[in-house]
Amino acid sequence: MQFAKRLEPLRSNVFAQMDNAKAKARAAGHQVIDLSLGSSDQPTPKQALEAIAASLTDTTTHGYMLFHATKEFREVAARWYEQKYGVAVDPETEVLQLIGSQEGTAHLPLAVLNPGDFALLMDPGYPSHAGGVYLASGQIYTMPLRAENGFLPVFGDIPAAVLAQARMMVLSYPHNPTSAMAPLSFFEEAVAFCQRHDLVLVHDFPYCDLVFSESVPSVLQADRDKTVSIEFFTMSKSYNMGGFRIGFAIGNAELIRALRNVKAAIDFNQYRGILNGAIAALTGSQDCVTATVETYRRRRDTFVGALNRIGWSVPLPQATMYVWAKLPSPWEQDSIGFCLQMVEATGIAASPGAGFGKAGEGYVRFALVHEPPVLEAAVAKIGTFLRSTNSIPAVPEAATAGI
């Protein structure tokens, strides 16, 4: 049996390796503390669950959901966006309901790229961005994100020959995995660059609310006429609805129409009750969002403080639910080896930076998906592992007393 060549780049998966390593650690008797996956452990808002529950006995919600049946949800999403970012949105032509933002970012390349066209992607970046390009038989040019540049790409470094074949650029800030943020001036530069080179500007925006200092801008605030831009939102992070698979896109009407065409060939929309839950979340009290942000703030402070006390100096992230840590010697070029050996020795699972791209090598990502006492226990085990591999010096017992 033969398969399409476009599947070849998708066969190698660092995260599958980590999943196998976690299973082996459990089999060996370790209690695994999984900090490798950004799957929220926080509760879905009560108003969303109540709306979904009420829908279950309403037989009018049990049929297929085509585009026009999503009108109420699209109107709510448009109002939510306008109130939050001050940019007017037409819910009929500039909003599309999705089965999570990952579906949208993975399917959009099918609407934009011809075989051989380039997509400009962040490195490190979210794996599904590359997966969608491969499935569209496109080529990838990676834009390295370096600490000295605030983990922002340098557009002037992109070769002219690549730009001549490029059709889209994908950005995502606040950024997974680095937790970096981007100012409005950066998005203004990105919009102007994409206008100049006739590129579609894709902004994946799942962490729009998970910010611990100032608010972050939407790309459409830099492209108010929506000339080249489309932005993807999800209910998974702010509202802890990951398992319900609900998100939406807002942006250029032609891009929305093209993505809608792709979506129509692949799937119907999900159950109406889930849309009702999302509507309730977006229109109800936003105290649930505030509580989620404060939960991650406490976890961030606990985890980073504990790492610093064991001698692993890590900067305090200003956004997202992740900590992006530069690996100490001798692990600077072996993030996969570090994560595999650490989970085998301690049961603590993290995501190797190399799994997010070549420029992610030398880093590891921790997801803050446990309460502070569990995070403190995890850091204590991490410290034991690091000292056993001579990665950090021995720390006096008094220095680790709070861990």
Quickly give the CATH architecture of the largest domain: 3-Layer(aba) Sandwich
Q: Looking at this structure, what is the CATH superfamily of the largest domain?
A: Type I PLP-dependent aspartate aminotransferase-like (Major domain)
Q: What would you call the structural class?
A: alpha/beta
The level 1 CATH classification of the largest domain is: Alpha Beta
Strand content: 5-15%
Annotated CATH topology of the largest domain:
Aspartate Aminotransferase, domain 2
Strands of the biggest beta sheet: in what spatial order?
2-8-7-6-5-3-4
Q: What is the terminal separation in angstroms?
A: 54 Å
Count of discrete structural domains: 2
Helix tally equals 12
Number of strands: 12
Q: Mean pLDDT, as a whole number?
A: 94
Please state the overall shape, judged from the principal axes of the Cα atoms: globular
* Low-pLDDT runs: 396-403
Radius of gyration: 22 Å
Pfam family, one: Aminotran_1_2
Organism: Planktothricoides sp. SpSt-374
GO molecular function: L,L-diaminopimelate aminotransferase activity; pyridoxal phosphate binding
Domain Aminotransferase class I/classII large: 31-382
